[in-house]
Specification:
By secondary structure, this protein is an alpha/beta fold. The chain is built from eight helices and 16 strands. The strands form four sheets. Strands 10-6-1-2-3-16 form a six-stranded mixed sheet. InterPro entries: ATPase_NBD, FtsA/MreB, PilM.
């Protein structure tokens, strides 16, 4: 399955391949980037790094002070081989909406304009002017006519729609044009992670898996079932702050208890409210920049005994970092650089 989120109405968006692309992820702390080459058996990182940003320049992926971000990005790429590279950028999970939308059985060329109308009228999004992409699912849905209308029941095709705010994407396009980097595509973080595994057959396409990105100041979770990203949720949980406070109070595990409660709440919502069809999460892959992932994995294994919990596999990544676990902070940019 190949996703292109979104199909931007820009003349320079063309064909992609796996070589020569740089994956970039913008967070409130800075920009992580990776240029990688994927072979049949491994991922070779050619260059990777982190360009730090001062506090307040970016908030939840939105650029607050574009002038200063441009200055920092220009300074950060001076001594790299990033100049004039083609960039694949991630959209913050906090800004991504995934919906299933039923539509009449129509030719594919008629679907995008119809979905555009649906997103503006029927599907309620928390932002205007969405950029979106869609995928036709291998399922049909039975749609009943409005009560009293006299209409007939209709079987419709089901589409998975992934949407992001147009204003945010426009910010990224302008940012990279100012520093002479070419924004070739944007993608969502869960698909970047899934790509890292599925390309090398680590991902189980038949089961239900959850990806858990534990960063310093936020946690993202996403649920995949049979290769489809069904649900994403951003948990605004400041892991570093909670950990520091609880350690100062002599309660080392307290922050993990609080985080576990938030994650368990999301899992239960997905299993029993959103799905409610017997679907159960079978695996949790943990990744992200938080350094104490081994502790969190052990902590969660003791409490979710019916779910296999493991770090995102990175043994197939050849990298320049001192330790393998440091790769976990760069898994999203790695997956972005593999977008084909």
């Amino acid at each position: 399955m190949k996703w292109k989120l979104p199909t931007l109405p820009l003349p320079f968006f063309g064909q992609r391949n796996r070589a020569g692309y740089v994956g970039m992820m913008l967070t409130d702390e800075g920009i992580r980037y990776v240029e990688a080459r994927a072979t049949a058996s491994r991922i070779q990182i050619r260059q990777a790094g982190f360009i730090e940003l001062e506090e307040g320049l970016v908030r939840d992926g939105k650029i607050i002070d574009e002038k200063k971000v441009i200055e920092r990005l220009e300074a950060g790429i001076k001594n790299t081989k990033l100049k004039r590279k083609k960039i694949v950028m991630s959209v913050p999970t906090s800004s991504v909406i995934i919906r299933k939308v039923p539509l009449p059985k129509l030719p594919l060329k008629e679907i995008r304009p119809l979905l555009g109308v649906e997103l503006e009228t029927t599907v309620h999004l928390p932002f205007s002017r969405p950029y979106f992409d869609f995928y036709k699912l291998d399922e049909e849905v039975k749609v009943e006519p409005p009560e009293g209308s006299g209409g007939e029941t209709e079987w419709m095709d089901q589409y998975l729609v992934i949407a992001a705010p147009g204003d945010l994407i426009d910010q990224y396009v302008h940012l990279f044009s100012e520093v002479k980097l070419r924004l070739e595509a944007v993608d969502i973080e869960p698909l970047a992670l899934y790509r890292m595994l599925s390309t090398y057959h680590f991902a189980d396409s038949e089961s239900c898996s959850m990806y858990m990105q534990v960063n310093l100041h936020t946690v993202n979770v996403s649920f995949f079932k049979e290769e489809i990203p069904e649900f994403v949720r951003n948990i605004p949980f400041d892991v570093a702050l909670h950990k520091r406070k609880t350690e100062e109070e002599g309660m080392t595990e307290s922050f993990a208890v609080e985080l576990f409660r938030e994650v368990e709440r999301v899992i239960n919502f997905y299993q029993f409210t959103m799905k409610n069809d017997g679907t159960r999460v079978e695996k949790i892959y943990m990744t992200g920049e938080f350094p104490d992932q081994e502790f969190l994995i052990s902590f969660m294994r003791e409490r979710l005994t019916n779910i296999e919990i493991l770090p995102l596999p990175v043994d197939h990544v050849v990298h320049p970092f001192p330790e393998d676990k440091e790769v976990q902070a760069y898994t999203v940019p790695i997956g972005l650089s593999m977008k084909g």
